[in-house]
Design brief:
Radius of gyration: 26 Å
Bound molecules: alpha-D-galactopyranose
Helix content: 10-25%
Number of strands: 38
């Protein structure tokens, strides 16, 4: 059984296929964490020793590993929950009420405050074949007055010892997901966002390893399913425990729970492996594809798309887009997406956001002329929108200047000439639903790219009571999810791509509501290899859009060959974003060949497992391999710069079945070898030049 409970000793054990997670209820009040790691068969073996106080400055309760420590008593460690009751009390004293098990795979620990009727339920749902535990917390106010919560973690973890390395990403617009790994030092490592979205800098997750490599070693990891203000705290304590808390950021946060109200925090998906970073990535890829992503995205192989942004920016017309569509269809594109610039008075980023109707000059006969032409060419049609925003120069703002977030007696700050709509207002939610619903109903639209190009500022909402103002950040994110979900329910055939100035909206919350994400506005094929690599640690390749664009690259000014750009973008879900009307016949022929090749291997990339073999983070050679059920594999190799006369590059493959034979196809060459040969001896490649790349395809023959 996955969830076991020993009654006499109050020990709970949550077992997945290869891990155990164990805690106990102590004295009917403390939920004491005992263990998380490789599987332990018998929870009854656990010896629960009393926690001793160190001295009067460090009480036993502060050194104890607790599942969800409230602020209270002599606790000064990272807090999971902090309430404020009307009588001024600002702590919580837990009493264990009972436990319950749902569907055989979800354990709920029911707690309450010793005095106030505030109930706190800790949820643990097991995905035992994936070795993942989903955790979240539900709080219910059964007192007769309001209760405020200013700290409210989704999950809290205790890891034994302090000898860890942590990995995170860092970056900014056009340089997202740069992965780094550091030795954990005493004190706190804090990662967060305060902008009202996930942000382009860090990612809401933790990765803690004990000297792991790609192939082996212990790794603990957990990702928060939330794209609003978030916080991840890793605390390395003096008492030989590491504590990790993930959840809604406490900064400028307060949630007022009215009498009778219940709130469920965003979830955290957490896992443990002894098989290194690759296994962590496989686990999260599988989790996303089987559990997290919207049903449609789980089942679908994503089409090759064309996106107009880099090709035509704001300078759009129906005939020019039809001309592009014709070229796109010819090279095998399946979905044609018009990015920014098609609506309102959107001739630059100065105006138009909020007016979601086609610009009359650019589309005199409405969008239909283009969608019909695109459909006739055998492609689906998609559109860019930025629903949460408004330009002061727009009909929407002129009509409803009070629909934005603002503080009284302050001038609202613009960024990219735009303001943020107050999505906590029901009228705004209604307006956005009706205008996007109309777009989807009146036009044959199969794809929406949903952008958010600035953070929230002056977080004040006229419609909210003073006591609710600091819940605005949370309510905004909830409103976005509700809006997308409502649109999906009415238009189930539409795919949604999440985007925020490139990769500002990448997290497991977004992935629960959007089918795909835009990784970065930086489409430079070399930079992209690194950005994609950072992304691949915890996020699913299937959701990752990647475009082949023109050179010199619009952002980096760097030039790379077309084939290199294709191979880089083929490591995700392929898109084209160059101005195809300027391409030579030879270039178009290469596009057609590469798109066709991608269609043959895309199930391996989108639904396979990724192996990071070599990285240009450490040199000039990069190799990434995808394996689909040990039956097929594709290897991409990249050499970014020639050095002396070096030309020999060896790659040991991974993830194959050692006992099966594979046919290896490399350009015109073919050979057959057993999986063990390919994984232990490897493939040796001769490569010379700057920006050369290859795709090598493997198929099991036995
Ligand atoms: C953001 C997106 C881009 C593009 C532009 C349009 O920057 O990341 O892909 O859609 O907005 O304005």
């Amino acid at each position: 059984m996955a969830i076991t409970f020993s009654k006499d000793r109050s020990i709970f054990s949550l077992d997945t296929q290869s891990s155990s997670y164990v805690f106990a209820i102590e004295n009917g009040e403390h939920v004491r964490h005992l263990y998380w790691g490789p599987k332990v068969r018998n929870a009854a073996d656990f010896q629960i020793r009393p926690v001793e106080r160190v001295d009067s400055q460090d009480a036993a309760i502060d050194t104890m590993a607790e599942e969800y420590p409230p602020f209270g008593g002599l606790r000064y460690k990272t807090t999971a929950i902090k309430p404020r009751f009307p009588d001024g009390t600002r702590d919580l004293v837990f009493r264990f009420v009972e436990h319950s098990v749902r569907d055989g795979n979800e354990l709920v620990i029911h707690l309450r405050d010793a005095h106030h009727k505030l109930f706190v339920d800790l949820h643990y749902r097991l995905y035992d074949d994936l070795n993942v535990i989903k955790r979240w917390v539900e709080v219910e106010n059964r007192t007769s007055a309001d209760v405020e919560l200013s700290t409210l973690a989704s999950a809290y973890f205790n890891l034994p010892g302090t000898d860890y390395f942590y990995s995170q990403v860092t970056g900014h617009w056009s340089a997202e997901h740069q992965i780094f790994r550091e030795r954990l030092q005493p004190g706190r490592a804090d990662f967060q966002c305060r902008k009202g979205l996930t942000g382009n800098t860090h990612s809401p997750y933790f990765i803690l390893d004990r000297g792991a490599t790609e192939e082996r070693g212990e790794v603990y990891f957990g990702a928060l399913a939330y794209g609003g203000n978030w916080n991840v705290t890793i605390e390395s304590t003096q008492f030989h425990w590491v504590r990790v808390a993930l959840g809604i950021n406490s900064f400028d946060f307060a949630l007022r729970l009215k009498k009778g109200e219940r709130f469920a925090t965003p979830a955290v998906f957490a896992g443990f492996t002894e098989l290194g970073f690759s296994q962590m990535s496989h686990t999260m890829n599988d989790l996303a594809r089987q559990i997290v992503l919207p049903q449609r995205a789980r089942e679908r192989i994503h089409p090759v798309l064309f996106n107009s942004w880099e090709a035509t920016k704001f300078d759009i017309s129906v005939h020019q887009q039809i001309a592009l569509a014709k070229k796109a269809a010819k090279v095998g594109v399946e979905l044609f997406v018009v990015d920014d610039g098609w609506f309102g008075q959107r001739n630059s980023d100065q105006a138009g956001l909020g007016d979601w109707v086609a610009n009359k000059k650019k589309f005199p006969k409405g969008l239909k002329e283009l969608t019909t032409a695109v459909n006739k060419l055998g492609m689906e049609f998609g559109l860019w929108i930025e629903p949460e925003m408004v330009n002061p120069d727009s009909n929407l703002y002129r009509k409803h200047p009070d629909w934005i977030y603002e503080f009284k007696n302050r001038t609202p700050t613009t960024a990219r000439n735009q303001l943020v709509l107050n999505l906590t207002r029901p009228e705004v939610q209604k307006y956005l639903f009706s205008v996007i619903d109309a777009l989807l109903t009146e036009n044959n639209i199969a794809y929406i790219k949903w952008d958010m190009n600035r953070p929230i500022s002056e977080p004040g909402a006229r419609n909210l009571a003073p006591a609710d103002q600091c819940s605005l950040w949370l309510r905004h994110t909830e409103a976005v999810y509700e809006l997308v979900d409502a649109l999906r329910a009415k238009h189930p055939h539409v795919t949604f791509e999440g985007c925020a100035s490139g990769g500002g909206r990448i997290d497991y919350g977004t992935l629960g509501h959007f089918d795909q994400i835009w990784l970065s506005d930086n489409t430079d094929a070399t930079d992209r290899l690194l950005i994609q690599e950072g992304y691949s640690y915890l996020y699913p390749i299937k959701a990752m859009r990647a475009w082949v664009t023109d050179v010199p690259n619009k952002i980096t000014k760097k030039s790379t060959p077309l084939e290199f750009r294709f191979h880089s973008a083929m490591c995700g879900t392929l898109g084209l974003g160059g101005n195809l009307t300027n391409y030579t016949q030879k270039e178009l022929a290469l596009c057609a060949q590469k798109v066709a090749e991608y269609k043959r291997i895309r199930h391996i990339v989108q639904d396979g497992h990724v192996y990071r073999l070599k990285s240009i983070a450490n040199g000039r050679f990069h190799a990434v391999q995808y394996v689909y059920r040990q039956a097929e594999s594709v290897l991409f190799v990249f050499l970014t710069a020639q050095k002396y006369i070096e030309s020999n590059y060896a790659v040991r493959l991974r993830g194959l079945d050692p006992a099966r034979r594979y046919e290896v196809v490399r350009r015109e060459d073919k050979f057959v070898a057993f999986g063990d040969y390919l994984m232990n001896v490897g493939i040796s490649l001769k490569m010379m030049g700057d920006y050369v790349s290859e795709l090598i395809h493997l198929r099991a023959t036995s």
